[in-house]
Amino acid sequence: MADTIMRFGVPQGSFPGLVVFTLHTQPLVEILQQHNMSYHYYADDTQLYKGDSPKHITDITMGLEHCVRDVKAWMNRNKLKHNDNKTKILLMKSSRQTINTPSVSINHTIIDMAEKAKNLGVIFDSDCSMQH
Predict the structure, then answer these.
(1) Which of 9, 14, 40, 42 could form a disulfide with 47 if both were Cys (CB 3.0 to 4.6 A apart)?
(2) What sequence ranges are listed for the domain Reverse transcriptase (predicted)?
(3) How far is CA 93 from each of CA 79, 99, 112, 116, rounded to the nearest angstrom?
(4) Which among 11, 9, 41, 7 has a CA at the least distance from the CA of 26?
(5) Which of 118, 39, 124 is nearest to 86 (CA)?
(6) Of 91, 75, 63, 60, which Cα lies nearest the Cα of 28?
(7) Residue 124: is it exposed, middle or buried by C-beta count within 10 angstroms (0-12/13-18/19+)?
(8) pLDDT tens digits, 90-109
(9) Is the model's pLDDT at 4 over the cut of 60?
(10) E strands, the chain, where?
């Protein structure tokens, strides 16, 4: 696979890079709020959260698909790359719950449900057991 030549940007890890990236991505907040998503930014990672009753799982997954579609469209318009390969979905529930989860599709690609995800060194698992 050939390296992609980037024609825009600032040095990664630099203070100006952090400030420019933060200012440049600020409009994402409006998109996330329009979709009623809670969110967390850390550097170039964005995490979306949605809490609700299991009976609303279809609405949650559809809302997630629409939100990510709009985020990707904004990123394309603003010369940022969304890494589909790093996209994960973690459904957190009680270990006693069984939830039939509809598939989530982003740009015609099915995103598998993850059993666990790492967030700033902490591993979260789907059953909230805090075991790794």
Answers:
(1) 40
(2) 1-124
(3) 36, 9, 16, 12
(4) 41
(5) 118
(6) 75
(7) middle
(8) 776 666 666 666 677 777 77
(9) yes
(10) 38-42, 45-49, 104-106, 109-111, 116-119, 122-125
SS3 22: helix
- Residue 86: its H or E element: none
Q: Which two tokens stand for residue 35?
A: 């979709």
The number of beta carbons lying within 10 Å of the beta carbon of residue 67 is 19
Q: Are 113 and 101 in contact (CB under 8 A)?
A: yes
Residue 51, CA distances (Å) to 25, 54, 60 in order: 24, 9, 9
Give me the phi and psi of 34, to 5 degrees please.
-60, -30
pLDDT at 127 exceeding the cut of 70: no
**Mean pLDDT of all residues in 50-76:** 84
Nearest CA to 106 out of 54, 25, 48 is that of 48
Look-up of token digits 């799982």 = 57
**Residues facing residue 42 across a β-bridge:** 45
| pLDDT (tens digit per residue) in 26-40 | 888 899 999 988 887
pLDDT of residue 31: 93
